[in-house]
Amino acid sequence: MPEMTLVDAVRLALDEELERDPNVFVVGEDVGKRGGVFRATVGLIDKYGAERVIDSPLSEASIVGVGIGAAIYGMRPVCEIQFSDFIYPAFNQIINQAAKMCYRSGGEWTVPMVIRAPYGGGIGGGLYHSQSVEAFFTNTPGLKVVVPSNPYDAKGLLKSAVRDPNPVLFFEPKKGYRLIKGEVPEGEYTVPIGQAKVSREGADLSVFAYGMMHYYCLEAAGTLAGEGINVEVVDLRTLYPVDRQTILASVRKTGKALVVYEANLTGGYGAEIAASIAEGAFTDLDAPVRRLAGPDVPAMPYSHPLQDWFMLNPEKIAAAMRDLAAY
Amino acid sequence: MPEMTLVDAVRLALDEELERDPNVFVVGEDVGKRGGVFRATVGLIDKYGAERVIDSPLSEASIVGVGIGAAIYGMRPVCEIQFSDFIYPAFNQIINQAAKMCYRSGGEWTVPMVIRAPYGGGIGGGLYHSQSVEAFFTNTPGLKVVVPSNPYDAKGLLKSAVRDPNPVLFFEPKKGYRLIKGEVPEGEYTVPIGQAKVSREGADLSVFAYGMMHYYCLEAAGTLAGEGINVEVVDLRTLYPVDRQTILASVRKTGKALVVYEANLTGGYGAEIAASIAEGAFTDLDAPVRRLAGPDVPAMPYSHPLQDWFMLNPEKIAAAMRDLAAY
Amino acid sequence: MDLSKETLLEMYWTLLLARRTDERAWALHRQGKIAFHISGIGQEAAQVGAAYAIKRGYDWVAPYYRDLAMMMALGLTPYEFMLGLMGKKGEPSSGARQMPSHFSLKRANVVSLSSPVASHNLHAAGIALGIKMRGEDRIVITSIGEGSTAQGEWYEAVNWAAIHCLPIIFIVQNNSYAISEPIQKQMAVPSSADKACGLGLPGVTVDGTDMLKVYEVVQTAVSRARSGEGPTLIEARAYRLTPHSSDDDDRSYRSREEVDEHKKDDPLLVTQRTLQAQKYLTKAKIDELESKAIAAVDQALADAAAAPYPEPADAAFPVYAEEVQHA
Amino acid sequence: MDLSKETLLEMYWTLLLARRTDERAWALHRQGKIAFHISGIGQEAAQVGAAYAIKRGYDWVAPYYRDLAMMMALGLTPYEFMLGLMGKKGEPSSGARQMPSHFSLKRANVVSLSSPVASHNLHAAGIALGIKMRGEDRIVITSIGEGSTAQGEWYEAVNWAAIHCLPIIFIVQNNSYAISEPIQKQMAVPSSADKACGLGLPGVTVDGTDMLKVYEVVQTAVSRARSGEGPTLIEARAYRLTPHSSDDDDRSYRSREEVDEHKKDDPLLVTQRTLQAQKYLTKAKIDELESKAIAAVDQALADAAAAPYPEPADAAFPVYAEEVQHA
Ligand SMILES: Cc1ncc(C[n+]2csc(CCOP(=O)(O)OP(=O)(O)O)c2C)c(N)n1
Ligand SMILES: Cc1ncc(C[n+]2csc(CCOP(=O)(O)OP(=O)(O)O)c2C)c(N)n1
Ligand SMILES: [Mg+2]
Ligand SMILES: [Mg+2]
Fold first, then answer.
1. Subunits touching D (CB < 8 Å, at least 3 pairs)?
2. Closest chain B CA to residue D133
3. Is it true that the peptide bond before B241 is cis, omega within 30 degrees of 0?
4. Statement: the pTM of the whole predicted model exceeds 0.80
5. What is the pLDDT of residues D275-324, one digit of tens each?
6. Which of A47, B289, C152, D286 is the least buried, fewest Cβ under 10 Å from its Cβ?
């Protein structure tokens, strides 16, 4: 099996889906000749033409809003938001339109579209190129929110997203675009949306994470294994709808839960996971449900010492794991 | 002390603040001659003129964005979003601009502004005139989020918000605008932002709510008192920053916690409260932290049987209280 | 003018039927039989004129909430509209999930409208993009009020259409008010059609009380669009003869004299006069159609009143396309 | 033209110093000494011409990320800019919290810029509103790239300014590209100045490589604004002589020939020629200023390199205005 980077897996998925279905098209800023600022769409315009790989005007509301209209008409738009930090101008279109179209029309109109956006920090992007915005979308029924943590899932989940009859937000861990490599089988396969995955078995505590933080959690779990602490790591993969079954099953087994996410702690996605565990696994808990997340300052600062202060890393995560294991 | 409705208390606060500080001005759609669609600004234009009570163009991003600029310049804008359901076009201005201005400029520029928006359901407003949008803002450091539940607090908190040197989102329970009446003392007083309040003492379980749901919770608590169950009700009042001290103190006392909110359950504001309790009061809990909230469908439907299915009411809340008390 | 006598009488009938249905809605509201109505009275000529210029059922339509007459031209029946007014089961726009006049009619290629203004213009542009990508000769028509052209989303929709030379017509129904705000508070140009020159498409202003003039200019725009020459922006000038909605009281912001003045240009009377002048319509015919319209409205009302409400449990679906029964 | 020889030489010096500082930033990036740079090379004449037409330090400025030369005209030193490039403590825009070129300079009335494009134009309009409300004779100048005028927020900002006749000048620096996208993908009009006619304000296009022409048109706009006649939209045409940023590779979307062609109109050379023709500048003077500029940049670099990084703990503040030390 060929090994590839996460961003290459994204591109491969787009290529295969464009090839498979003439209704699929890609739209976003600089996705054409430039191939996207992260190179996720490089070469696609040469292969599929400017009609199916569309350089949009510089306006996110229109990328998503026009995408919604095309999806209603039966197309399969894959919209790219250049950085997740710039998704807010499209917020009304995503929350009030894409998410509610099926329900408000009694199912007569549906919006089969994907919105891809690179997210996350640690890349010297400062306040506006580092944000982890998932919590703004994981309270909205009608949307599906997916975050891959490795190339295999990135390809399989993105192909599922393109084929999904609903609007799917697909957040890609940009720090891992080239850092995270893995084997991706040749040819056709998909990974189902809606299922978390136990990526490492363990008996002492359960750690829940996604995207880049999941990658770090596996590294930290490896460290703790050397110390005789067996951490179970769960890759949430789909953040919305929430796969509570897999989450609660793991907590029932270990009795301890740590949720790790890189966004601000308060009101972050981890709050829902912690709350679900607190309610659903109360009698199984041997320790308080802990959360490790970014500090409650507006966003990640630019200068390296400041960025490092904000950003989680395997060491900080390992420390939180030790702490909970010792409870 | 004169009794007045919640909306009258809001208007009185605006009137007094416009009177007090020439930098204060009101801006929004139809806030002038029309006095706002809920009449919260009636009469203000006659008293303070069209320069300080500004009918804005129909664009929320501009109401907030222009407000931010004016605030930077030293004015004290009070922006009105006609319905909280229409706040999304201003999302980029609120989340990326207002919330981050102080931090990103190292404190050189600050944004002393208020954004008022009526929120909540049960008024026959359908999907887009019933939303409870607080959870979209309670994960964003730099913002303060306030929700009054009675006329006294509405006046006192709004006056504090106008004087606050930061951007304050002020969500008003529109179903309670005329339904909720209460005594409001003549003249000057304020209610501090940042403090939750035990609005009813009780020993058997703690219930956390805000706005309209707090009003219902008090009613339900009254019912349960008749059944010999003593419910402690905490009015959160300020949703962000979170007053964890008051919340945890109550749970330590009762050992049981129920969080009530009318938005969708998953990812709602109650998730943070539940998570904070699960982590901060683990050893005090005699029962799982429960949440009672709206169902996970996109938004509140219009037709009455459908709306009633979605909307919480004192009976549903009383049932959840009984259930938890019996645990 | 290629309109036969039969067609002209059919157009008149549609206008008349819409008017009587609309008036009945106001009556029902006064009687407390319905909770909400938003009216198209004064704008029907523009709506019918525009609808007859497209291939109804073949071309696509993204209307706005005042487009009752346009919807009736597209096949919506008084009975179906009244189901919406009463929130009854089987209401075609949303299954009674949305407020009245939030139109959607799949059988007529009318896509679902929500409340946030201007959002749907982007969907219309997206549908036009889909049409162009598939090389079809359909066109899209979308309407909006003049005040709502202040929204960035409207600007972005027209910009997309102009850049991509899409087969779409933007109709602005300028009824002189946005709730309480006159056009001068929404734009610094005398007509919203003037905005076309800044966006690179043709802009036309037409008397919106003249059904035939509107038909002509829209027809010209339609042939441009269908032959691939791109979009057109049309402002149809009329006057909102009723309050904004049943929740509004327009006496606070405009005089009775002003309103009465405009009643002289009531499009129903104007159209009557025109057709009488052309000898297509006699006094007798007018009375005959009048009583026919009243009878039709009476019957629709009786049937709608007898129709059942939705089951509460209907509110639970369909959040996602997978749940859609017929899909 | 009311510019003295001294002033013209000062303007030339500012342009030269900005250019050499900018070039040094590119060199530092190639050497791996800084992580990011975004350049103003090619647009300096427009920026200096505009800056000298306002009352610097009295009027207010909301610049964009390419405005290094404008910032230097307003007093930003090469040392301060380099502190930002290196993320060093005491950097004046943000205390090194933001990426380089996210300008803010309180002492010069320059308000903080963030990354999402066009957001700051609304702030500029709000500042102009504040100025008007206070009856002051200050004006506001704000710049943006041509592609970013596709954002709804830009449209809403200009619309506000036009409706309220605000003392503000919108300068669009049309450098022919938005990252990889030519202007034809952003708008259907030949010049962004054409957008003025749709918004109801004067629009002017000027050769952005001609410092004196830009000075003239901006001066005219400034006197209009200062005398209460309202806003002006100015497009300054130039060419982006560098890649979009240090992260960009422009070879994928434009030819070297095209870029070289435009180097003939390098505003530094154009300005040199003009001042030589006017006999204000001799070969000797050019060489003298040249070595003076290099020396200044060397010194700035040495000082910035020697400056300390912020303390990690600096990242914790100031989230709220209450935490601001000097405020
Ligand atoms: C985004 C948004 N903001 C505010 C509203 C509330 N609102 C509904 S209609 C309306 C006025 C619209 O005026 P206009 O566009 O002229 O259309 P008209 O009602 O006059 O036909 C407003 C402010 C809304 N529906 N959506
Ligand atoms: C809202 C938003 N979307 C996307 C981006 C990414 N981005 C940064 S600059 C840029 C191109 C801007 O082009 P233009 O407005 O012409 O200015 P220029 O860089 O050419 O001076 C883009 C797409 C952004 N910063 N903000
Ligand atoms: Mg109108
Ligand atoms: Mg440009």
1. A, B, C
2. B51
3. yes
4. yes
5. 999 999 999 999 999 999 999 999 999 999 999 999 999 999 999 999 98
6. A47
What's the pLDDT at A180? 98
State residue C174 phi and psi, 5-degree precision.
Answer: -85, 100
- Are A147 and A79 in contact by the 8 Å Cβ rule? The answer is no
Q: Identify all chain C residues contacting D151, using CB atoms and an 8 Å cutoff.
A: 152, 156
Q: DSSP for B172-208? A: EETTHHHH-EEE--SS-----TT--EEEE--SSEEEE
B150: its two tokens:
């009675």
Contact B85/A95 with Cβ under 8 angstroms?
Answer: no
Give ipTM to 2 decimals. 0.98
Least Cα distance to A317 among A219, A250, A183 occurs for A219
Q: Confidence band (pLDDT; 50, 70, 90) for B1?
A: confident
Q: Quick one: pLDDT at residue D327? A: 43
Residues 6+ apart with CB under 8 A from C19: C41, C44, C69, C268, C293
E strand or H helix at A278, and its extent? helix A269-280
Q: What are phi and psi of B243, to 5 degrees?
A: -85, 75
A139 → closest Cβ in B135, B241, B275: B135
> Does B43 have pLDDT greater than 50?
yes
pLDDT given at position A186? 86
Q: For residue C101, with 0-12 CB atoms within 10 Å meaning exposed, 13-18 middle and 19 or more buried, which class applies? A: buried
Nearest to D83 by CA among D100, D107, D63, D60: D100
Query: Which residues of C sit within 8 Å Cβ distance of D?
Result: 150-153, 155-156, 159, 162-163, 184-189, 194-201
**Residue A263: strand, helix, or coil:** strand
Question: How many angstroms separate the CA atoms of B39 and D165, rounded?
Answer: 28
C178 C-alpha to center of ligand 3: Å?
Answer: 4
Contacts of B57 (CB under 8 A, 6+ apart): C147, C150, C185, C186, C187, D156, D159, D160, D163
Task: Classify B114 as helix, strand or coil.
Answer: strand
pLDDT at C1: 67
Are B77 and B114 a contacting pair, CB within 8 Å? Answer: yes
Q: How far is CA B205 from CA A283, B224, B261, B323, in A?
A: 18, 11, 17, 11
Grouping H, G, I as helix, E, B as strand and the rest as coil, residue A242 is coil
Angle at C158 between CA C153 and CA C164, to 5 degrees: 125
Pocket test for ligand 1, best of C65, C117, C235 (most atoms within 8 A of CB): C117
Residues contacting B245, CB < 8 A, separation 6+: none
Cis amide prior to C318 (ω within 30 degrees): yes
Give the N- to C-terminal CA distance of chain C in Å, as an integer: 42
Q: Closest residue of A to D315, CA-based?
A: A306
Triad D218, A59, A131: Cα angle to 5°: 105
Q: Contact, D154 vs D148, CB < 8 A?
A: yes
Q: What residues contact D266, with CB distance under 8 A and at least 6 apart?
A: D42, D209, D241
Alpha-helix runs per DSSP H in chain B: 6-20, 44-48, 60-72, 91, 101-104, 151-163, 176-179, 211-226, 244-254, 269-280, 304-310, 314-325
Cα D220–Cα D225–Cα D231 angle in degrees, nearest 5? 95
